[in-house]
Structure prediction request, 442 residues.
Amino acid sequence: MEKVIVVGSGLAGSEAAIYLANKGYEVDLIEMRPKYQTGAHKTSYPAELVCSNSLGSSDILQASGMLKKEAMMLGSFLFFAAYNNSVPSGNSLSIDRNTFCVEVDNKIKSLKNINAVNDKYDKINPDIPTIIATGPLTDRNLCEDIKIKFNEEEFHFYDAIAPIVEKDSIDFSKAFYASRWDKGSADYINCPMNKEEYEKFYDFLINAQCAPLKEFEASYFEGCMPVEVMAKRGVDTLRFGPMKPVGLFDKRFPTEFKKNQFYAVVQLRQDDKIASLYNLVGFQTNLKWGEQKKMLSLIPGLENAQITRYGVMHANTFINSPKILNKHLQTKKYENIFFAGQLTGVEGYCESISTGLFAAINMDRFLKNKPLIELNSKTVLGALIDYITYEHHKKFQPVNASWGIVDEIETDKKIKDKKLKNEMRSKRAIECIEKVLNIINE
Ligand SMILES: Cc1cc2nc3c(=O)[nH]c(=O)nc-3n(C[C@H](O)[C@H](O)[C@H](O)COP(=O)(O)OP(=O)(O)OC[C@H]3O[C@@H](n4cnc5c(N)ncnc54)[C@H](O)[C@@H]3O)c2cc1C
Prediction:
């Protein structure tokens, strides 16, 4: 059987290696730990969870739960192991991270056609079928090689990201659409504040609790400016920065009102193709998640906003997937080379596992000269891949599973009942995956 290289035995790489080994390939699984450390991982085990032990919801009415279901239908080993090692946590899947890693490790060791190599992988060889799954803490040398091979001017790094909210949860009796000085179309959602509201918001922000930063992240911290850090520079810093109110008018009010400037404005920018998600412009933050909720509750219009992605701050490397990858997670430039996991711009444990599986499914089909699988955006996994390979993002940023990126239900009438809508979406996604499984099993 042909030889395949999988680089990185994190979540995506372990999943990919196990899938391909089960298909009979000779798999070289190259992992640099424990010889070289990432700064976040603590063990020498594969599939280590670097932070929380939660893999999110198990409920298929939630996008994260549906993603697990889709991956399990497609043959995921890691989700199977996760459920084997789950700990009680209501409707979500939380796991004992140690026994989970051991189970994945045992599985890898039991597959005699996986050759575990403990070394750094520095240079991609386009002649050998390879899945790169080296994660957000990909070693520098490999980053340099990716830069050269894919003509990337700047390899993507980000230090802090801003929260993303669901448009449906914004209160438009307070928020309004406009662009600054009415230039171009009214693309932004604006949440205006008066002086009193701003001062309350400011007081909260300068006293809010931040998530702890690891030492290796400290250098990144200095290089960027989370909103809470900016606030500490002075009471008006935000009003001259991301909360600048000038040139923003709510056309629903009489003209005279325009003369009265708002005191501060929080702007939200569209985040997905279908305009269901909006990110808070300039609101990158390292506040604890509970504090982020409180922060939003002090912004008029966002009091009850549903956060689909919280702001986070850590070193993160992700490739320019819209330019580099096709919808099979194969690089456009080298047909032997696939990418998977967080390095592709998906964000989160489940997203990384699922893309690892998907890259492996397509690597198998590629090596067997079968047509590669493409998932549509009716499935959560398909929507994630669609998002990261969509070529027209103004600024490509990582994404995690949410119904906001999944295609709307085709219907003449708007479905207001959220539960019903999610039931229809889940049912539709399962049907899509069943069809794909028929193709895979042909
Ligand atoms: C500090 C931090 C906290 C996070 N917290 C959460 C969280 O709470 N919840 C969540 O859902 N997600 C979290 N994430 C995101 C998380 O990293 C991903 O969800 C997931 O681990 C990524 O899976 P992966 O397989 O892509 O990468 P990883 O699991 O990181 O695996 C990549 C592997 O590649 C190896 N590697 C790197 N470069 C090389 C090389 N050149 N040669 C050989 N091996 C190499 C690494 O050692 C690592 O084992 C966090 C990320 C970070 C950095």
